[in-house]
Amino acid sequence: MPGPKTPCRVCVVGVGAVGQELLRVLRQRRFPASQLTVLARSARDISVDGAAYRVQAISEKALQGQAIVLFAGTEGEKGAAVTFSPAAIRSGAVCIDNGSDFRMKPEVPLVIPEVNAGDLKNHKGLIANPNCSTIQMVAALAPIHRAFGLKRIIVSTYQAASGAGSKAAESLLTETSCLLADKPVPAPQALPQQLGFNVFPQIGPFEELGYTSEEWKMVRETQKILHDETIAITATTVRVPVLDAHSESIYFETVKPAGVGGIKDLWRASPGIALVEEPEYPMPIQAAHRDEVFVGRLRPDPKIENAFACWVVSDNLRKGAALNAVQIAECLIKPSP
Ligand SMILES: NC(=O)c1ccc[n+]([C@@H]2O[C@H](COP(=O)([O-])OP(=O)(O)OC[C@H]3O[C@@H](n4cnc5c(N)ncnc54)[C@H](OP(=O)(O)O)[C@@H]3O)[C@@H](O)[C@H]2O)c1
């Protein structure tokens, strides 16, 4: 399907953590929009970094005539993308969804532009943005997969509160200030447990074999993006009291012989990846509000050949959501060679 001609009408659905970041990224990257429409459940005026936006209540009518619709609403049957993307596509829009509702549908491309932009050519009006923890892991491992193959990945995540939405980030701040003031901590609402001064190994509901939905997303989405179902992946996803930027401890085994120097060279040559060399290492306080996927602490397994451990940090709202979605939109408007 050909992409829209620019400048084109762009619509952002949702003005929570990801929606506001989308507005910021569109502005920072000077996306060529002839008109920008902002929709959410209720109408109001908002300001993002000093720029004012009029938010309209979502309706099928408001989606008519849009060329690109970036969905950052809630997920599920009653969520924004499930309810409204069919009407937007019928009226000619290409929809890019940040949620998980369509990611595993075979007809929906699941895209990280630096990794599999080629999959965009087969879209049928809907493109899915991968999960935030999947994006940073796959962005870091894709060059290694391409050069050496990957047979095994074991990942443990350290995920920021904003990954569960703006209310979860606010409740981390409230809980922390209550704890510091020795006041009672309100019962958790946006998250399953108290996050202030705590960590917990549950992101999403528990599913098959005792893994959570977030853990299954990391397995299935990685295999889909890399077009490789042979990679054995085990994930443990953990929420930590950090506001922005997820960290990941990743162990991986390559199919072909590989070495630390060769992997670092691949990372140095990969767009979007920033190698942080020892004695430094990436941390959320440095990665927050940045575009790069930061990689570091690469070391060989002492006993197993072609096995390595590394540490990957990236802003879940930027490369993990808004930036990746806008990069997909940029691919769509790029004239074909
Ligand atoms: N947070 C992350 O790091 C991250 C990363 C990757 C993907 N995602 C995905 O991105 C999506 C948005 O996440 P978020 O963290 O930004 O959530 P959020 O902070 O809770 O914000 C949700 C926004 O969606 C709007 N909304 C909800 N239902 C809607 C509907 N039916 N129609 C129109 N608007 C609707 C809400 O409108 P009102 O403000 O009017 O209530 C709100 O502005 C989710 O699917 C999430 O899984 C999030």
Structural commentary:
The chain is an alpha/beta fold. It folds into two domains: 8-129 and 321-333, NAD(P)-binding Rossmann-like Domain (Rossmann fold, 3-Layer(aba) Sandwich), CATH 3.40.50.720; 134-316, Dihydrodipicolinate Reductase, domain 2. It is 31% helix and 24% strand. The protein has ten helices and 13 strands. The protein has helices at residues 17-28, 60-63, 80-90, 113-116, 132-148, 166-180, 213-225, 260-268, 284-287, 318-333, and strands spanning 8-13, 33-40, 44-48, 51-57, 68-71, 94-97, 126-128, 150-158, 232-236, 246-254, 273-276, 293-300, 307-314. Strands 3-4-2-1-5-6-7 form a seven-stranded mixed sheet, with helices on both faces. A six-stranded mixed sheet has the order 9-8-10-13-12-11. Helix 4 (113-116) links the parallel strand 6 and strand 7 (126-128). The radius of gyration is 20 Å and the shape is globular. It binds NADP nicotinamide-adenine-dinucleotide phosphate. NADP nicotinamide-adenine-dinucleotide phosphate (NAP) binds next to helix 1, strand 2, helix 3, helix 6 and helix 10.
